[in-house]
Amino acid sequence: MIRVEGLTAGYGGIVAIDRLSLSIAPGQMVAVIGANGAGKTTLVNTIAGLVPAMAGAVKLDDVALTNLPASEVARRGVLLVPEGRRILGPLTVEENLRLGHLAARSRGGSRVADMERVFALFPLLRERRQQAAGRLSGGQQQMLAIGRALMGRPQVLLLDEPSLGLAPVVVAQVFAALHTLHQDGLSILLIEQNARRALELAEYAYVMERGRFVRHGPSAELRQDETIVSYYLGIERTAVPGLARQEGTHAR
Ligand code: ATP
Fold this sequence. Notes:
Blueprint: E1 2-11, E2 14-24, E3 29-34, H1 40-47, E4 53-60, E5 63-64, H2 70-75, E6 78-81, H3 93-101, H4 111-121, H5 123-127, H6 138-151, E7 156-160, H7 168-183, E8 187-192, H8 195-201, E9 204-209, E10 212-218, H9 219-224, H10 226-233, H11 243-247
Parallel strand pairs: 3-8, 3-9, 6-7, 7-8
Antiparallel strand pairs: 1-2, 1-4, 4-5, 9-10
Helix pairs in contact: 3-6, 4-6
Adenosine-5'-triphosphate binds near residues 34, 38, 42 and 193.
């Protein structure tokens, strides 16, 4: 069980997330939806140890992770698939996956077996295992970023906008993989602007505005909420990369 309690963080004294609390039970998938700049990335980056917390706590099974170095948070089993993927382009697919295993090294387990599981989820990565990761398509790079995090044997997987900039058919593939991981019992925190898909996939969701959670509840309930429907689900998201950022504040 991962718990976030009153988590507050920001940049240069400016608060970007303000006293956020949430929890993810074992095997649960929780989504955070919200417009550009709401603070979603700051939330996951603070959980992952990449942004320092100004107040509050992150606890995994009641053990505090707050303000541990990011590498240590990963070693404890909280693995981030960052926005923009951040795969290492000059390295091969397999080398990227091996690097992902470093987070799991102290917890034992077979790297070969873990890699087989990633290849079972994303068969294309097996075919391309000797290829430079930078030559993969955007969708394949997203699969590799997820695979790399899985190599770290997550107890909790944090995903920051895995659908960003991908064509709808590829988004469907990535979300199908997340569904499989969820079915297999992995705990997942999914950050998404693609509110429609996020609310289909996760069983519970939080709506974020200007660094605060303004609503939360079972996804099925939020899908019935007229304000959320008109504001977050009213306009289908376009798959044109970068357009979302230029358009300003409304989520799709
Ligand atoms: P997006 O969908 O654009 O990634 P988001 O919901 O993830 O949005 P954040 O990226 O967490 O939002 O940004 C929250 C606020 O913090 C915004 O006002 C943003 O401008 C600000 N911010 C984010 N990163 C930094 C940074 N490195 N330095 C200063 N301010 C930042």
